[in-house]
Structure formats: C-alpha cells, structure tokens
Design a protein that fits this description.
Helix content is 61%, strand content 0%. The chain has five helices and no strands. The protein is an all-alpha fold.
C-alpha cells in the first residue's frame, strides 16, 4: 500500500517537529550518536569512492570535513551535532565562515574576483 503524498502542509510541519525531537533525543545518547557519526562518515566515503553525488547539504559537509585530518572528522561532526541549531552563530564565526568561503581551494590566498584588494609582492 503506497503512502498518500498529498498530505496537508500543516501535517508536514507537525511531522517535522516530531522527527526533529526524536532525532535530538537519539543524539543525546552517546553510543547512538557515535554510531550515527561513524555511519554518516562511512556513507560519504563510499559515495565518493563510487562517484555518486551527495545531496547538497552533505556535499558541503564533506567539503568542510575534508579540510580536517581524518582522525578529527568524527569529533568535529559530533560537536556539530551536539551544538544548538536554534542558537545563531556569533559574529566571529560568521566572519570566519565567509572568509573561508572566499579562500581558494588550493590554499594560496583569495580567489580572483574577491572584493578585497591585496598589494602586490615584490620578488
């Protein structure tokens, strides 16, 4: 029997609240959180090895985690899961994220077309 996909929008909001409440409860249990983190990292690695595209949110997460050493990725992901998403990030964190987005992927400075103008170095 197939599910009816024409559910009322008000039901979607209620389902989302229930789903997020259950997820928060599960993430408060240590061994379940560790299991979820390991499984998510393994899924992202296997998807990359097989050449499959990740959803946009997971692709961005994988891009950020790739900058960390392999042993620190699980810790960083777990810290992100424990943080309160309703709490807005501080000004310092927002500026650091914007600065990180402006940096080139090879780590050699800012991308061309960036707003800031850097003085030329003399050789």
């Amino acid at each position: 029997m197939a599910r009816d996909k024409s559910a009322a929008p008000k039901d979607e909001g209620k389902k989302r609240r229930i789903r997020s409440a259950v997820f928060r409860r599960i993430m408060s249990v240590g061994f379940l959180r560790h299991f979820y983190v390991r499984r998510l990292l393994r899924f992202m690695e296997k998807s990359k090895a097989k050449g499959r595209a990740l959803p946009p949110e997971l692709a961005r997460l994988q891009q950020m985690l790739a900058r960390l050493p392999e042993k620190k990725r699980a810790e960083a992901l777990e810290a992100g899961l424990l943080s309160n998403p309703e709490e807005p990030p501080s000004r310092e964190m927002r500026r650091a994220a914007a600065r990180q987005d402006r940096l080139r992927s090879d780590g050699r400075g800012y991308r061309s077309g960036a707003v800031t103008e850097r003085p030329k170095r003399r050789s």
